[in-house]
Fold this sequence. Notes:
Layout: E1 2-6, H1 15-27, E2 32-37, H2 39-43, E3 55-59, H3 70-76, H4 81-90, E4 96-99, H5 103-114, E5 124-125, E6 128-129, E7 137-140, H6 150-168, E8 174-179, H7 189-200, E9 204-210, E10 221-223, H8 226-251, H9 255-274, E11 282-286, E12 291-295, H10 301-316, H11 319-331
Parallel strand pairs: 1-2, 1-4, 2-3, 4-12, 7-10, 8-9, 8-10
Antiparallel strand pairs: 5-11, 6-7, 11-12
Helix pairs in contact: 1-10, 3-5, 4-5, 6-7, 6-11
Amino acid sequence: MRIAIDAMGGDNAPRTTVEGALLAAREWSDVQIILVGDEAQIAAFMPTGSVPANVTVHHASDVIAADDEPVRAVRRKKDASMVVAGRLIREGAADAMISAGNTGALMTTGLLIVGRIDGIERPALAPMLPTMDDSGVLALDLGAYMDASPHNLLQYAVMGSIYRNKVHGLQKPRVGLLNVGTEAMKGNELTKQAYPLLEQAPIHFIGNVEARDVLQGACDVLVCDGFVGNILLKSMEGTAGTIFSVLKTEFTRSFFSKLAAAVLKPGLVAFKKKMDYNEHGAAPLLGIEGLVLKSHGSSDANAIKNAVRQARIALASRLVEAISTETGRKRDGKE
């Protein structure tokens, strides 16, 4: 398994990407990690004499910045680390790529450099959202494409179901459609038209799911358009951040509140870990002819390591091939 990591992408790159790559390389000897980026900067964080044999560096002289316009950057910065990593997949020199860099640029790299799976109209960004039962929910699309059609949502549902089956081992993933109510005819025109398509699809569709039930584990796969999905994601991140900030203020307000904090600390730490995106590693860009994973911009070394773990499982389960086969069956009328 050859996994290319965009060493220059992310808020703390290349330090965290290199550190995470080294952790992963030491954990899984069957993975060949290719760090893509400026050789000199990468070398500064590589321990002298103790670099694992399954880590190599592929030089790339340029970087796509967080504020770069995605399409223009991908087309003009041909030697940017992210673009080079995508090209390694296209040329067969890598089986997967991971980046914590510019999200829009990674979407563009997936589309223009790696390419879409034949039959998939729009790729979907599919992160795992935490749930109270620790099983998580795969939500898609959460930002790759803002104006989805009912058929796009159908493809998201099928790809999400395949992902949870292949990567997480769920035999019959429950697929829900994000909506304002649970009744079949609730919602806007998009969800009303998508509902009957999902009913007829070869998936375990359980109907509409309201946002308030997502964290309770109402479904295993949550389907929505990228606009609504991204708002859901940012709302959850903002709410979690605010809650932890308020708790920190309250528990340090007085001597007695500090005592209470000491008693509750184990539970609070466990809850924070449950809500931490670093534990989930990365979000796959499903529908791309190659495995492309997006890590959070502020990912630490542990998040990068977890992203490698995800990529390793997805490659072993032949996720991309399974999605390609399923869409091919639909295209040939063999459902």
